[in-house]
Amino acid sequence: MAELVRVLSTLALKGAVGNLAGRFEAEGGARIDADFAPTLALLERLRGGEGADVVILTRQALGDLAAGGTVVAASCADLARSFVGIAVKAGADHPDIATPAALRTTLLAARSVAYSRLGASGILFTQLIEQMGIAADINARAKIIPQGFTAELLLSDEADLAVQQISELKLVGGVEVVGPIPRELQVPAIFSAGRLAASNNVASSDRLLKFLASDEVAPALRESGLEP
Question: Are 179 and 95 part of one and the same domain?
Fold first, then answer.
């Protein structure tokens, strides 16, 4: 039986890691046992003593863990950039979100907008609607979930628009990604990976980290909605 590498990963990398796990094992790597949650939730679990071999988090969160010695600093590698986007239910008209003004109009016209309380996308969107001066209007009708996939609320007709990392929106069938929020309104989240200092699978973990940061996985990252 192949050695097992336990991975705790942010939701944004779920599609990519899922697609690459079988390939890594087929090429002689260890079997990947991955669990996915927002970065803030993963940090809480790690603080609670949960064990793993490899963690994939935002660059800042991983850097903080490395500075504290929880993650081996020399093992850390940037994997991908991710932009926040907007999705609609499949078959629905794609609203105009190409400019800040168009996005503001679209958000105000929506019956309800779904976004997540945790994670980089939720933090960005909360700040964005505050800056636009429309937070009260949007939140009066918004569907704010603690974590998970906001696009699922499109399928249940609880929202007209879903806001999240594009790679997370693409994991939900039956929806269509309209596109990213205008680039000038957001700073891309950078997701990075590193090996926990307490890992007992150093060789396999480091091999996985090298694989995930290699040029050969770039197509899989792009397909999942990320930028290598």
Answer: yes
The answer to whether the CB of 80 falls within 8 A of the CB of 90 is: no
Tell me the whole-structure pTM to 2 decimals.
0.87
Residue with tokens 């806001």: 163
Q: Which one, of 77, 126, 132, lies nearest residue 108 by Cα?
A: 132
Helix (H, G, I), strand (E, B) or coil at 68: coil
Residue appearing with tokens 């397909």:
223
**pLDDT tens track for 73-104:** 999 999 999 999 999 999 999 999 999 999 99
Residues of the chain by 3-state class (helix, strand, coil), percent to 5: 40, 25, 35
Query: Pairing mode, if any, of strands 143-145 and 189-195?
Result: unpaired
Domain co-membership, 17 together with 63: yes
Q: Are residues 24 and 102 in the same domain?
A: no
CA distance 79 to 210: 10
